[in-house]
Every structure is written in C-alpha cells, then in structure tokens.
Amino acid sequence: MTSGGVVKQAQFLNVVDRAEAERRFRAAIGELGPVGAEVVPLDAALGRLLAEDVASPVDVPGFDRSNVDGYAVRAADTFGATEHEPRRLRRLPDVVAMGRIPEATVEPNTALAIPTGGAVPRGADAIVMVEHTQLDGDDVLITKAAIPGRSITYAGTDVAQGEVVLRAKERLTSRETGVLAAIGLDHVAVLARPRVAILSTGDEIVPPGQPLPPGAVYDSNARILADAVREAGGEPFLAGIVPDDEAAVRGALVRALAEAHVVLLSGGTSKGPGDLNTRVLAEALEPPGIVVHGVALKPGKPLCLASSAGKPVVVLPGFPTSAIFTFHEFVAPVVRALAGRSERADDTLAARLPFRVTSEHGRTEYVLVRLVSDEHGALVAYPIGKGSGSVTTFSQADGFFIIDERVEMLDAGDVVAIHPVAGSRPRQVDLVVIGSHCVGLDVLLGRLAASGTTSKLIAVGSEAGLAAVRRGECDVAGVHLYDPETGTYNTPFLGPGLELVRGYGRMQGVVFRPGDARFEGKRAEDAVREAARAPGVVMINRNRGSGTRALYDRLLEGARPAGHSVEASSHRAVAAAVAQGRADFGVAIDIVARDRGLGFLPIGEERFDFVVPSARLARTAVRAFLAELASEPARNTLRARGLLA
Ligand SMILES: Nc1nc2c(c(=O)[nH]1)N[C@H]1C(S)=C(S)[C@@H](COP(=O)(O)OP(=O)(O)OC[C@H]3O[C@@H](n4cnc5c(N)ncnc54)[C@H](O)[C@@H]3O)O[C@H]1N2
Ligand code: MOO
Questions:
Q1: Does residue 172 contact residue 190 with C-beta atoms inside 8 Å?
Q2: pLDDT band for position 425 (50/70/90)?
Q3: Residues enclosing ligand 1, CB less than 6 A?
Q4: What pLDDT does 294 receive?
Q5: pLDDT for residue 2 is more than 60
Q6: At what angle are helices 632-640 and 439-450 packed, to 10 degrees?
Q7: CB within 8 A of 305, min separation 6: which ones?
Q8: 246-259 vs 277-284: helix axis angle to the nearest 10?
Q9: Which of 130, 246, 488, 510 is deepest in the core (most CB within 10 A)?
Q10: Which CATH code for domain 18-32+193-338?
Q11: pLDDT at residue 272, rounded to an integer
C-alpha cells in the first residue's frame, strides 16, 4: 500500500471490545459441555468429577454392629440395674470374633462378650459397655440398665443398598474417595478431561534446562499454560516450540487440531514480521475460522480467537502476563465447561488505591495488584507495574481490578473491586514491608521465613514506602532518602508517630567497564564531570523518586549527557546496561558492580534504614524483624553481602 511514497503497514488488528469478543467467540464454538467420560481406578480419581450418580451396591454397615467393647444382652434383662442392685446374667463361653457373624444366640438372662465393631448376635438388642459390668465367677453383673438398641448401629443405617451417595459432577476430594472405598468400589466413572494442545511459537524461544543464547527467551508460557489448564480441569498436551516458519506452524497446528479439544498458541499474533500465526490460522482452519483478532484490553490486545468447525483455537499474545491473563479471561471458562465444571466463581473484594493510576482511553485495562490491610482492616490494592512482559507479575498478584475503557484515571483513595486471581486467595502474612527494595531485605525476610514469620514485600520505592507507613498500611518501610540540605539520609523525613530503626549502609559509586581510561583510577566526581561533557559517552540514569537519582543530580551539576532520559529502576539494571555496553557509566552499589565484574569509583555510603510506626513496635512480627536485624548471624550475612553495619 503506498500513498505519496509512504508505505503503510498492513493493519492486521481489527479491535473489538471485550464483550463483543466474548460474544463472537462463544457463538463460533457453540454450546459447551463435558467432552466425555472414562472409568479410572479409585487411586487415580482424586480431583476428578463424577460422570454419573453413584448408588451403593451394599449396605453400610453390612450387619448390625456394636459400637463399644462390652456385652451383647437382651435389654429387658437389664431393666432396673444400678450400682447397688446389679442384674446377674450368665456369661456365655464364647466371644464375638471380628469379621464373623457369631453363631451363639443370646437367650434370656445371658450375655455374650463383644468387641467394638463386632456383629451383634441373634437374640441381643443392646450392648452394655464393659465399664458398666463386673465379673463374678461365670456370671456378669450389669450395673447400668440399657434400652433396646443401645450402642448398636443397624445394617444400612449409614448407607442403604441402592442409596445415591454421590451426585454426578461432584468433585472427588479425599472425603468422597473414602466413601467410594467404603461402598466397595475400586473404579469409578469420571468426566474426561478436555485435551488442550499448547504450542509456543517464535525463533527466540528455548526450552528451560538448555543454555540461553543471547537474545533468546525461555519458554515460560507453555509451562504456566499447561498447569493453568490442569487447574481448570483439562489435560495439557505440550505440542512443543515451533519456529517462525509458516510450514512448521501449519504442520504443528494440523497435528494439534487432530489430537486436542482446544488448541492454544502463544506469540506471533501482533504485527511483527514473524507474527505469522494468524495468517496460518486463516488458511488452515475450517469455517468459521478467525472471529476476533484484536480486543480492546490491556494486557492482551493482539488476542486472536478462532474456531475450526466448533473447536476452539486461540492465539494468546506472547508476553507472559498477557498470555496468562487472556487465558484466564477467555480460555479457562471454556476448559472448565468442557471438563464439566462451572465456568467461574467471581466474588470481588473492595479495596482502596494507595496512589493515582492512569489508563489508556479506549482499552479495558486489567491491573494486577497485591493486597494489604490498613489499621482498620480495610484493604489497600498496590498495583504491580511491571508490564505485560513480566513473568512474575501474575505469580505475585492477589487479584486484579478493571479500568473501564472510558476511564483515564483513578485517584489515590478511590475504591476498586478486586477479582481474586484464579487459584489464589489473598495471602495473610505476619509482616508487611513496603518501600525500597534492597538485597539486605531479602536476607532478613528469608531468615524470618525460616523461623516461621511470613512476610509480603511490596517494592514501590522509598517515597511511596514512607507514604504507606504514614497511612498505616505496613509494619515496616525500607527507605534510603537523601536530604541535600543536611547531607544526611532518612532522619529528616520522619514525622510524628514514626520511629527510625538503623539498618545498614551501602557503598554507592560510579560503575564502568574495567579498563575504560575515561574512568579508571579517577575520583568519582572528576570522572563524571569530565565524562558528562565528553563526546560519545552514554550514561544510564535512575528513576525519579529513587534515592540514587538525587546523587546523580549532584554529580552531574546540571549536565545532561546522552542516556540521561533512560531510567533504570534498580541497581542491577544499571549494572546490566553498563556490562552489556548499552551505557558507559552509571551509579550503583558496589555489590552489583562486583557481581558484574565492573569497575567501581566510590562516592559515599548510602543509609538504608527502616521506618516503623511507633504503634506497631510491640507487634510480634515487628519484634521478630528487629531482633533478626540486630542478630549476629544476620549481621554477618549482611556484611558478607557488602552491607555495612
Ligand atoms: N506495532 C505493534 N506492536 C505490538 C502491538 C501492536 O498492536 N502494534 N501489540 C503489542 C502487544 S499489546 C503485545 S501483548 C505483544 C504481543 O505480541 P505477539 O503475540 O506477537 O508475541 P511475540 O511478538 O511473539 O512475543 C512477545 C514477547 O513475548 C515473548 N514470548 C513469546 N512467546 C513466549 C513464551 N512461550 N514464553 C515466554 N516468553 C515468550 C517474546 O519473546 C517477546 O518478548 O506485541 C506488542 N507489539
Ligand atoms: O496487550 Mo499487550 O498484552 O498490552 O502487552
């Protein structure tokens, strides 16, 4: 397509809204119900859904059973018996044996010894506990009267033969498999699991366990999708990794269609040159084929929904968060229905936003969050802002909320409805830490976990951590805020009701590739001053609001070399950029410089301290944290990581 010499790329996506996408997809795949049934050994039945009602082939118990150790008697013979006026019965010579129907008959004025679980003999209609008897020669003295039926469970009272004990579609837990065993079944008919083929596509995708060439990416989508399929009641079928090659994708797709009830592909659905999956689908599927390509969602916009003669075929976006999100929104309900489960259970929780959240107009946005509770037990939802490419976002999330396509901004304090993410309930933890992240915190929280104190760490930077601790949303905030006025860290930022707990220092400095004469052997301040004005030097900056950013500003003295606008969000990211040659220098802590084998020019020690609300100092988990921080083994580990006491 050319217009006035400008080549316009083909527009693949024809974006529809979420509801329309769902409507078209469901219309194309039709009514959904269980794909079939199969008989499995009871040992493999846990978690499966019953295919049909189960009626008991036997009575349970199968005989009249004694519930106590004692004597089988005729109740009438015991009437009036007391400690003072016992009734005398003749003890029959036998004892009821377990697992046998006794041959003896209990005649008037006789008693037969019987164990718990033994079959009640003919003639007897009650059992007297051994505690209410005394032996006297060949006689038994009964010291407490029994009414007819005392301590007997009659045959069939638990389950009568022919009674329905479990209903079709019931989920088999250990309680139900126990019942099936009790009625003598060793096999059971369960609903078949729908087979879901999973195909990862892309030249860069490498299976875990193999070396990772530069530019390659481990296949995480296949794993998370396969296990999410299992969680939804399906049976994953891993169809492998296919390169960006039309013939290869077509071959794998045709095989998957022949073997599975549902076919999932991930990657290759947006607009890159390798994104040929939808092209292959358009040719290879039977009608109706592709019904949606592009949904106004974030994440998940390039989602492609199709049907090959009623069989669901979905291309999920390659980005891990987008793939798993769209799976849960569009595919999981289909798998559940094919497995005979209900499509979804959606209870929401109300939670408040701790800060402003903006969103793109015209796209329904799903924001994954972690939940904490404030002083009054009200929930606060911290968005996890790592983007669709993140592989950890989904695993850390407690839930998500939805921003309508017409809304562009939600304010701090706004209340949103949180949908719990599949397979997770908001985790209750002992200690909530919000603020800046530091490897030292990992050490401390790891040691706490080992001694039984659970924690949740929400890394949002020092300033947001301080705000959270002021609002009572956490027990501890990790902060490293530099105050240029006083030249000190953290103390100037405290307010009423907050305590500063001394943490540790981290040596900050300029990092560069070893051997770079522009930095080697110089003082940090001089090296940066010269480099910032030298042609061809590229820096890597830190995000605004970080403690390190203030240091950069001081060092740069107003200069803005190339790379000033590139804001890494962690010390590690700075070191990676320099090590890989994307930048020539940056500011980071010495630990990451050492890990990466970079040169390091020290600037000064940065204090990483902890802010705790005075009101929470007495909490058990806070005391455990403070004790850990002060402990010798923890301090030794911190020192070994280059963190100074
Ligand atoms: N010009 C445009 N570019 C993009 C658009 C757009 O509308 N116009 N959409 C963006 C959005 S939104 C998303 S989401 C992605 C989805 O792209 P694809 O589905 O085509 O996926 P790929 O390009 O193949 O891969 C994206 C990303 O994910 C990684 N990946 C792929 N497969 C796996 C896997 N099995 N395991 C782990 N990671 C995987 C892949 O390496 C890429 O990094 O497109 C945007 N672009
Ligand atoms: O839809 Mo993409 O999933 O926004 O990143």
A1: yes
A2: low
A3: 13, 200, 202, 204-205, 217, 219-222, 266-272, 275, 299, 301-302, 317-320, 322, 388-389
A4: 92
A5: no
A6: 140
A7: 21, 24, 25, 28, 290, 291, 292, 293, 295, 312, 314, 330
A8: 50
A9: 510
A10: 3.40.980.10
A11: 65
pTM: 0.78
d(CA 205, CA 393): 20
Could you write out the three-class secondary structure of 210-268?
CCCCCCCEECCHHHHHHHHHHHCCCEEEEEEEECCCHHHHHHHHHHHHHHCCEEEEECC
Closest residue by CA, ligand 1 atom 19: 317
Where in 355-492 does DSSP place strands (E)? Answer: 357-358, 364-373, 379-383, 399-403, 409-410, 415-420, 431-435, 455-459, 476-479, 482-483, 488-489
pLDDT of amino acid 263: 98
pLDDT at residue number 8: 44
Specify whether the CB–CB gap between 436 and 545 falls below 8 A: no
Tell me if 373 sits within 8 A of 379, measured CB to CB: yes
Give the tokens for residue 106.
Answer: 């209990």
For residue 293, how far is its CA from the centre of ligand 2 (angstroms)?
Answer: 13
Alpha helices in 139-187 (DSSP H): 174-182
Fold topology of 37-59+170-191: Molybdopterin biosynthesis moea protein, domain 2 (3.90.105)
| CATH topology for the 349-420 domain | Beta-clip (2.40.340)
Residue 319 near residue 262, CB atoms below 8 Å: no
Instruction: Return the residue matching tokens 């291309």.
Output: 315
Indicate whether 10 pLDDT > 60. no
**Ligand sitting nearest the alpha carbon of 387:** 2
Predicted-complex ipTM score:
0.96
Provide the pLDDT for residue 142: 97
Site to substitute for ligand 1 among 221, 314, 319, 386, most atoms within 8 A of C-beta: 319
Tokens of 234: 């399906």
In this structure, the chain runs to a length of: 645
